[in-house]
Amino acid sequence: MKTSKLIAALGLTIMAGMAHAQNMEITHNEERQTVVGCSDLFVGHALINPLFGSTEHTRATAGEVTFSPGARSNWHTHPAGQTLIVTSGSGWIQDEGGEKREIKSGDVIWIPPGVKHWHGASADNSMTHIAIQEEVDGNNVEWMEPVSDDQYQD
Q: Among the four residues 12, 48, 71, 141, which has the most C-beta atoms within 10 Å?
């Protein structure tokens, strides 16, 4: 009796795993095109590798951004906040009215919804991060004015 229940439970577990696996989706790196960040949104040279967009199941979007030394985003906000995971190099981040803060490989940064901020590489090093944010009413970012050289160097 115990053996038959164990076999039945094992069979159900395997079948549930197989059903779940049928819903898995993999997108390979070569299926996503890297784009150069446009000068309307970035100061300096930034490369953006899209990772995933929102779907019927999630509002989350993500991209990997690599900033050349001195490059940075414009000021911007996110309606549902943003998480940054620095994967290599070092850079800076600043919220409006706050101090410019160093960020480096391994750091994870949470920016609350609506907080005006910028992020980018340090003056002498490149920096790569993964940016994760959620869409609200189909929008995940509100772009604003460029970060001036004076703001960047302060």
A: 71
Instruction: Give residue-wise pLDDT tens across range 88-134.
Output: 999 999 999 999 999 999 999 999 999 999 999 999 999 999 999 99
Beta-ladder partners of 92: 102, 120
Q: How far apart are CA 25 and CA 70, in angstroms?
A: 37
Give Cα separations from 42 to 36, 63, 114 (angstroms).
10, 15, 19
Rounded CA separation 91/71 (Å): 9
pTM for this entry:
0.82
Angle at 54 between CA 84 and CA 145, to 5 degrees: 50
Cα distance between residue 9 and residue 65, in whole Å: 46
- The two tokens of residue 56 are 């019927």
- Specify the CATH superfamily of domain 32-153: Jelly Rolls (2.60.120.10)
Separation between Cα atoms, residue 88 and residue 86, nearest integer Å:
6
CA atoms lying within 13 Å on the CB side of residue 13: 6
Q: How far apart are CA 95 and CA 117, in angstroms?
A: 4
